Amino acid sequence: MQELHDAPLAPLTTFRLGGPATRLITATTDAEVIDAVRDADAHGTPLLVIGGGSNLVIGDKGFDGTALRIATRGCELGGTTLELAAGEVWTDAVARTVEAGLAGIECLSGIPGSAGATPIQNVGAYGQEVSSTITEVVAYDRRAGRTVTLANEECAFSYRHSRFKADPERYVVLRVRFGLEDADGLSAPVKYAETARVLGVEAGDRVPLATARETVLKLRAGKGMVLDPEDHDTWSAGSFFTNPILTDTDFAVFRTRVRKRLGDGAEPPAYPAGQGHTKTSAAWLIDKAGFTKGYGTGPARISTKHTLALTNRGAATTEDLLALAREVVAGVREAFGITLVNEPVTVGVSL
After folding, report:
1. Which of 121, 138, 131, 123 is nearest to 176 (CA)?
2. How crowded is the C-beta side of 186, counted as CA atoms within 13 Å?
3. Positive or negative, the Cα torsion across 232, 233, 237, 241?
4. Non-local CB neighbours of 309 within 8 Å, separated by 6+ positions
5. What integer pLDDT is reported at residue 22 of this predicted model?
6. pLDDT for 45 beyond 90
7. Residue 118: enclosing H or E segment and its boundaries?
8. Which residues does the annotation mark as catalytic?
9. Can you list the alpha helix ranges (DSSP code H) found in 192-247?
10. CA gap 342, 351 in Å, rounded
11. Whether this model's pTM surpasses 0.85
């Protein structure tokens, strides 16, 4: 277990932002993770758990406490069952399942970060969410002081949310188990309209697994959502805001505001989100509020490829990023009466 003091955290995040941690521990086994957590809890030391750093916004002053970087490794495939250590690189693990001919997470290709973060956010993209395939999550329960195994139904998954996100001080994910599908080399049924269109198939059709993965990677790359150190559009946390879910009543009010602002024929994106609720597009809201691709003049700007990504152009500070985020939130609220919610976890700062 490696230990450093006054350690930079910016290199551990995809934003490449944030000040140092008082202490940084890198754990390579579950036992080391648990020991580090127990030690911090025993001494009342603030604890920041870091995986791939793809969903973190760390303040410029850094973190006054122990930062625990989870670098555990382990990828076990048996039949249609997959078990991943929390520190496994997510997109590499997805590639292994495609090579093994197993369907269920192929449309989550290219998502940066570690496997342990996927149940926390209920990571999803292009018509798939990990909650559809996760069977169990093994975690250290800091409140109980022991390792627990939580079945899917105990994880309280919802859109970009889970039991782990709702109670972030309680659980540290150690391992994630998935139940995949052997569909003779074919993908799960394609659900996302853009993916189906590019593939030239109907929603519900299956395609070869490798084709599905390659298509998603191309779509993501075109939006700056595949990490590339030479491309500042990828110096981000991916989607910075979640798609708003509105009650039917609130959606009707929103629709009226859209037509007043954009004209009588204007229609906002609308997707079913459970009884009495409709989901709309954060990217659409941002664009129609006047924040187009590449918006900004400072070192933090909206991606030139996707309005939902806020980016560090190379010399930004966290405060630069937050100033841009606050401007976008205020502009969307003024235009459409909807308050956007940030998807990344903020550390030592807030919008």
Report:
1. 138
2. 9
3. positive
4. 223, 224, 225, 233, 236, 237, 238, 239, 240, 302, 303
5. 98
6. yes
7. helix 118-121
8. 160, 239, 343
9. 193-199, 209-222
10. 8
11. yes
